[in-house]
Give the backbone structure.
Amino acid sequence: MTVRLGLAGRCALVTGGTSNIASACVSRLCAEGVAVAFTGSNSPRGESIASETGGSFLECDHSDRASTDRAVGKAIERCGGRLDILVTNAGMQFEGSVEDTPEAVFRELLEVNLTSLFRVGRACFESMRAHGGGSMIHVGSEAGIRAAHETAAYSVMTAGAIAVAELFAAEGAPYRIRSNAVCPRAGTDAAALVAWLASDESASVSGATLRVDGGAGAAMLVDTRT
Amino acid sequence: MGRLDGIRALVTGGTSGIGASVAQRFRCEGAAVVCTGRDEARGRELAARAGVDFVRADVRDSGAVSSSVTAAVARLGGLDVLVANAGVIHEAQLSETTDEAWDAVLETNLTGYYLYAVACLPHLRAAGGGSITMISSDAGVWGETAIGAYSVSKRAVNMLVAALAVEAGPHGIRVNAVCPGDTAPGMATYVGGRSEGPDPASWTLPPLARVGTGADVASAATFFASADGAFCNGSILLVDGGMRASLRASSVAREVKQR
C-alpha cells in the first residue's frame, strides 16, 4: 500500500511530464490527491498520461521561452496563484564528447536543460514566496554529480541545474521555500522520493542533492575479476 | 631559464584582472603569449608593456572566437596552452536575476569557454599535446546567493573541465580548473561593469586573512601549464585562502585581525 504523505489538496507543476521518470511523478502525485499540471511537447502522449492519471496536460516547448511562460502562467493560474510544488524534469540528451557537440546543440541544451529550469524556477519562486512557501524538486541525473563524458554537454548542464536547485534553497529558506535535486540513474524510479520531498515529512530537507541509484554512484567500483 | 620556455599560450580576457596577471607571469616564465580582449586600447597598452601579443575578440561572438584562435596560432606558430579566463559577473540572487543578465553571464562564462576549448583542441593535438586551464571560481565549488547566475555558470564550467579532461587526456592534453576566491584586481573589483568596484579593504577575508591577488591565480595557472603539473588532469584547484574550507571560515580571519 502506498504511504499517504498528506499532500491532498495541494497544487503541483511538473515540467517535462511526458518522460518516463516524470510521468511516474505525475501519477504518484495525482494518487496522493495533488492537483497536477504537467508540460510536455508530445501531445498524444501527454493526453494519454492525463487520462490515465487525472493530471492536466499543458503542451509546451521548453526551447521556446514564450511557450514556457504561457504554460507556467496557466499552471499557476489554475491553482488560484498558489503553487505548492514544482517538479522540473524538462530536458534533452545529446550523445557526444565536448568537441563532438555542435555549437547549436550546446546552445539548445543550455536553453532547455538549464535556462528553462532557472526561468520556471524563478516564476514559481515568486508565487511560492507570495503564498507562504513551497517545495521545488529538480529531477536531474547522476551525470550532474560526476561527469558522464559520453554525454558531455548534458553533464555540464545538469551540474548547472544542481547549482540552481541549491541556490534556490539558500534564497528560499527565509520564505519557507525548499528546493532539492534528485539524481536517478536511468531506469530507477524516483517518484516516491519526489513525493516525499514535496511533502511536509521532509520539512527540514532543502538544498540536498540525492542520488537514487542503489549505491552505484557511492564509490568507484573497480572490478578485479577480469 | 623560465618554467614555460618554448610554450605558446593563448589567454582569453587577458587585458585586465586575473587574465593580465596570468599573461604577464607566463611572459616572465618564457612563454610566447597572445591575449584576447574586448578593449582595443587596453590590449595595445598591455602588449606594449608586457611584451605579449593582442587580438581583439568578444567571446559572445562565435565567429570572433574561431578567428582569434586562428590569428593566435598564426602569430605563435602553433599552440600549447589555452587559459580560458574571459568572464563577466552579475550581482543578484537567482530569483532577482533578469533574462538579460542570465544570458550575458552564461553566454560569456560557459558557452565562451566551450567555444574556445573546441576551437583550440585541434591545434593542441597538432602540437602533440598541451593543456587547457579554465579560470573558474570558488563560487563554482560552493555557490554564493549574491551572485547566483555566476555561481551556476562556474559549477557548469567545473563539469566542462571534467568532461574535457577525459576526452582530451588520451591526446596528451591536460584540462584543469583554477577556482579563485575574491581577487584584486579581478572579477570582484569589476562588479556591475565599473572599472573600480567595491574596495577590497571592505571584503570578508578567508582564513589566510588577506585578499587574493592576480599573482596567486597566475601562480596556479603557471603550475598547470608547466611540466610541474604533468599528471594533473581534471583537477579543480581552489585558490581562495581557505574561504570554502568551512561553513564559517571567514570568522577565523576576523579573529586573526582583532588579535
User: Anything to note?
Assistant: Strands of chain A lie at 11-14, 35-40, 56-59, 85-88, 134-139, 177-184, 209-212. Chain A has one domain: 14-208. Helices of chain A lie at 20-31, 43-53, 65-78, 103-130, 152-172, 191-198.
